[in-house]
Amino acid sequence: MIKDISGRTMSAHGIFHIMDDSRYKRWIAEFDTIEHDEVAFIEQRIKALALAPRIAILPLAVGGLPKDELSAFKCGLKGQIYQNWHIYLPQGFDTDRPIGSTATQLSAGLIIEAAKTADFVLPLPLDAVLRPHALATFVLALAGSSDADMIYADEDTLQHGKRSQPHFKTDWDPFLILGCNYTGTPMLYRSEAVKRAQLRDLTSATVDNLLHAATLHLSGTTTKDKILHIPAVLGHRTQKSDWNGTNAHKIVSAYLARQDDGAVEISAVPLAPQWNRIRFALPESPPLVSIIVPTRDQADLIGRCCDGILNRTDYPSLELIVVDNGTVAPDALDVLDSLKDDPRVHMLHDDRPFNYSKLNNDAAKVAKGDILVLLNNDIEVTRADWLKELTSLASRPDIGVVGARLLYPDLHLQHAGMVFGPDKLVVHQMRRANKHETGPRGELCLLRSVSAVTGACMALRKTLYFEVGGLDEKNLKVACNDIDLCRRIAKKGLAIVWTPFAELLHHECATRGLPMTPEKADREEAEIAAFWSMNPEFYENPDPFHNPQIEFKHDCVDFARPPRLHRFRTVLGKRQVVPFLY
Q: Are residues 262 and 186 in the same domain?
């Protein structure tokens, strides 16, 4: 065991317990081993289905399919419970010659040809292995979502017969897929969708990049409700991915150009150069941004916060609205007085009892900017480009709210998005991770969708803020107003995104403090109850951006014991399909 810089005892994998192979082995034995009785139950369910789609499995390798590797691939498909499938090999295939367009390039034309022979095509790297119930689970998923164009499942690594490195994925995320091929394998494509997408022009020097290009291309020709995720490990990889970062930049750039997504800059992620950082361009005339900072006393906090905004931020057009909620401390009054000569600063005064929602709503009414940034006074600017990143994203019509990467002063993660869990839980994702950790498959260093972000720093369009009624100043004066705002905006079909490229320090709760007094505790409890009474669907329905095989915990990412129920998971021993819970 080791300790972090705050003295906390940590495992060798830090907070990421799901990366511990010994833990994974125990979890598999208890929760992810398919026994004989369950195989029989799955067979019964398959026989009862009215559909039996034909599946073409397409092996992919750059430079050809050697006989020994193809033989191993076929062995990796043995024992499938579902029987209506075949391995597709091109007409005239010879194991001594490559099947790509050249010896070093693979063509998506192979996927098109395979799709002509079946209802669905499953392209797989030559090193991939499917679990015996994989195809059956795909078909059972289709029985409940007959119009799905794409279906993907979770995966792990298989070395010398031992499973490791589970990749527990989220539901479809149109932003994360730009950074990396997080959907990976196995991924099932509807043949009609393949034909509609016209993939023939796609080529790649690696298998994993070709699959990324195909997934991106198909996603652009369908809708997100037709892209299905099965939260269960159905496949294994036995070799290291052949992913090429430079090739990935070109693939995503070409995809975004086809989507007519405006000027985009794609570069390597600093913490993980194999993945993509996506920079969306600011509008030609950068919009005025109104930064709203409520404050009371705490001269050191408000002084440091405002200095960072006014003197260490490189955004060209901003106004700072400081809302003084009853400051009486002489040193804090001096700080506020020192701001008055800056033409970018607008001072508001409100001495009424603290109501965070109303303070922000009133400030938004006088804001001149097209973009609003709600910011706590305990935020410290550490990177000059933070506001450019937030504004470029908040200006996009498909995005509703943008959250930032917030670090504690000890440089451990405070905020990377929030997730909704059972028993009315709201948890900060991957809290207390080290500043330099990339997270599972890059989740801490890539732009991605989340269910909510903290009001300590959130950016959104002013018109949208008023369209949904702003923060709830009646029922949620202090607690839950930020996540309530996010969810009302998400209901309009807009994305809530978190970016690691707007990084700030957060001296959490330094001003308001934790709800230690009975009065504060009662208020907090009442407002949390009010939030859930107004939003029951947030705990009745699962969070699409949190895999049910991962536990809801504040300070570690651990295996759920047991995995939460979902519509693809049977209840062992009860011979019944579980209710729709995922």
A: no
